[in-house]
Design goal:
Elements (H helix, E strand, L loop, with lengths): L2 E10 L2 E11 L4 E5 L6 H8 L7 E6 L2 E2 L4 H7 E4 L11 H11 L5 H11 L15 H13 L5 E5 L7 H14 L4 E5 L3 H7 L2 E6 L2 E6 L1 H8 L2 E8 L5 H4 L5 E7 L3 E7 L5 H10 L4 E6 L4 H8 L3
Parallel strand pairs: 3-8, 3-9, 6-7, 7-8
Antiparallel strand pairs: 1-2, 1-4, 4-5, 9-10, 11-13, 11-14, 12-13
């Protein structure tokens, strides 16, 4: 496993910021790390990147212990903190060269040029970082996190401040990176999670409340499967209630109905047969998707 966390705990005074959490992430996986503000996400990331020590438990990155082998962990990890602490009085290309030197990157100039191209900083490379927009400063932060070609990339709110076009580009970049490396990123933008993640980990009050694929999380929280349909003419809900496994039918609009069944049964086939048997034209049929946002709200309710 690229990242292994076992019974990890961080205590500040009487507060357990992280409370006995365990999880694993393999190579080529993108993990969406979600939770309300103050849930323990950033604290966990800081432990994994050796910025702060844990109080209890164990964490390993690429087989190296974050406590006893912290220098080896830092060689294998790239980190973009939430506040993106870049040197604003340095030029973009100068700063990336400086960071590459710290990591003793081979063919430093070539690698800096590759990162500039990958993160779309070509037109900004000779500007002071302090003169850049927040979105472009985020790109500089991403470039520095990837300069030494780490095996694990940890990104705390990486798309904060980006415009819609930049969001698409950075998401595409993260997805590309995630094919070969392990990526952990926290975000409050649920569309990013659905677009990018193989796995979702939700933490609340320092404890893990969910750790699964998006599909499994949706099934876990949603108590039923819902299909919306539109026929060419009005249909009495009572007739659809006779379909096997249908729990309830609600009518909305002239010819639209919402059909709810047990979450383990997809009734779309039976609805189609109902339409054929009753000489109806099925104009529309769509299965409602329980979104990550719904899951998040359900699992983090106070």
């Amino acid at each position: 496993m690229s990242v292994s966390v076992q019974n990890l705990t961080k205590i500040y005074g009487s507060q357990r910021a992280v409370n006995n959490i365990s999880f694993e992430i393999g190579k080529g996986e993108v993990l969406g790390f979600l939770g309300p503000n103050g849930a323990g996400k950033t604290t966990t990331m800081k432990i994994l990147t050796c910025f702060i020590p844990q109080s209890e438990g164990k964490a390993e990155v690429c087989g190296y212990d974050v406590e006893s082998d912290s220098m080896a962990v830092r060689e294998h990890i790239g980190y973009l903190p939430e506040n993106n602490p870049v040197y604003k009085d340095m030029y973009v290309k100068e700063y990336l060269g400086f960071v590459a030197g710290l990591y003793k990157v081979r063919k430093k100039n070539q690698r800096v040029s590759e990162m500039i191209e990958m993160t779309g900083l070509g037109r900004e490379q000779h500007k002071l970082i302090g003169a850049l927009s927040k979105g472009y400063r985020q790109r500089v932060g991403l470039a520095q996190a990837m300069l030494h070609n780490p095996d694990v990339l940890i990104l705390d709110e990486p798309t904060s401040g980006l415009d819609p076009n930049q969001l698409v580009e950075i998401r595409s970049l993260i997805k590309q990176i995630g094919q070969e490396k392990t990526v952990i990123f926290s975000t409050h933008i649920m569309q990013e999670v659905q677009a990018l993640c193989n796995q979702v980990l939700i933490i609340n009050n320092g404890k893990i409340v969910a750790n699964d694929s998006i599909e499994q999380l949706q099934n876990r929280v949603s108590g039923e499967s819902v299909v919306t349909v539109e026929f060419n003419k009005k249909v009495k809900p009572e007739l659809l209630k006779k379909i096997r496994h249908v729990k309830r039918v609600e009518q909305f609009g002239e010819n639209h109905l919402k059909i709810a069944s047990d979450k383990n049964h997809d009734v779309r086939g039976e609805v189609f047969r109902f339409a054929v048997d009753n000489n109806l034209i099925l104009l529309e049929m769509q299965k409602e998707v329980f979104t990550v946002e719904n899951v998040f709200q359900e699992l983090t309710k106070s």
